[in-house]
Design a protein that fits this description.
By secondary structure, the protein is an alpha/beta fold. The chain has one domain (3-242): Nucleotidyltransferase, domain 5. The chain is built from eight helices and ten strands. The chain has helices at residues 30-44, 48-57, 68-79, 99-109, 111-115, 173-179, 199-217, 223-227; strands at residues 3-9, 19-27, 83-91, 123-127, 136-143, 147-152, 158-163, 166-171, 186-193, 232-239. Strands 8-5-9-4-1-2-3-10 form an eight-stranded mixed β-sheet. Strands 6-7 form a two-stranded antiparallel sheet. It starts with a strand and ends in a 5-residue tail after the last strand.
Length: 244
């Protein structure tokens, strides 16, 4: 069984960070990830300063993590776990990210699931504040015209990208009952969970924060630790003018 977790780095306001990053982690190695995070917590409890930080936070977070060496060691261990990491960097350009904009970004993030039909991921766990306070949000993911397109960069080198329209529509209970048994539909459930009680969400926060440190501040010392690993990382930028 494959588990999936969803996280974001950056803020939703127009005057805050320049980017918002949504990150999806898919893995069968839930126990291994939990063990790594619990060991990191034990190391934080070894010293008064780091123990106080963990006590105030109640969980491990990338932002203000008090021991850089421990953070790097933890990321290295996570990088050795078999998982797939997908991310989308949204260039906000002064935009406030409301629920509709976030749904559009999620459509592009979840396209990875559609590209791999053998991957049966029906439920995704996210923090309580990710979408709203409802326990579960259900969506239908549709791919209308997505197709490969060849483009050239400034050096004239061709590369493949995907172009087309993807939709990610929220379903109410009645709509869900109508489509749930149709195997041609891709139904995604986002279940909200308290991240303080989830080692996996805390691990993803470290990974998402590493991507944000690079995209937002040009700091690659953390993301480089993830690039040389068993973890498969795939992502790209999504600009405001790409919204459908």
């Amino acid at each position: 069984m494959e588990f999936a977790y969803l996280d974001e780095s950056g803020d939703l306001g127009s005057q805050g960070s320049k980017h918002l990053i949504l990150t999806l982690m898919c893995t069968r190695k839930k126990k291994e990830i939990s063990k790594i995070i619990r060991n990191a917590k034990k190391r934080l409890l070894d010293h008064n300063k780091t123990a106080r930080w963990l006590s105030r936070r109640g969980e491990i977070k990338f932002y203000s993590f008090p021991d850089k060496d421990l953070l790097k060691r933890t990321l290295k261990k996570l990088a050795d776990v078999e998982m797939s990491i997908y991310f989308v960097i949204f260039e906000k350009d002064g935009t406030t990210i409301n629920a509709d904009v976030k749904q559009t970004i999620l459509a592009h993030l979840f396209r990875h699931i559609m590209k791999k039909p053998e991957r049966k991921i029906e439920k995704v766990t996210a923090d309580l504040s990710f979408f709203n306070r409802e326990k579960v949000n259900r969506f239908i993911l549709r791919n209308y015209t997505l197709k490969p397109v060849k483009l050239k960069n400034d050096q004239g080198i061709e590369f493949d990208v995907e172009s087309g329209e993807i939709t990610f529509s929220r379903l109410n209970d009645e709509e869900f009952e109508k489509v749930r048994n149709d195997t041609s539909n891709t139904i995604i459930e986002i279940e909200h969970y308290n991240s303080r009680l989830s080692d996996e969400l805390q691990a993803l926060d470290l990974i998402s924060g590493s991507i944000f440190a690079f995209s937002g501040h040009g700091n690659n010392e953390y993301i480089d630790l993830l690039g040389k690993s068993k973890a498969k990382i795939e992502g790209g930028k999504f600009q405001k003018n790409e919204q459908k």
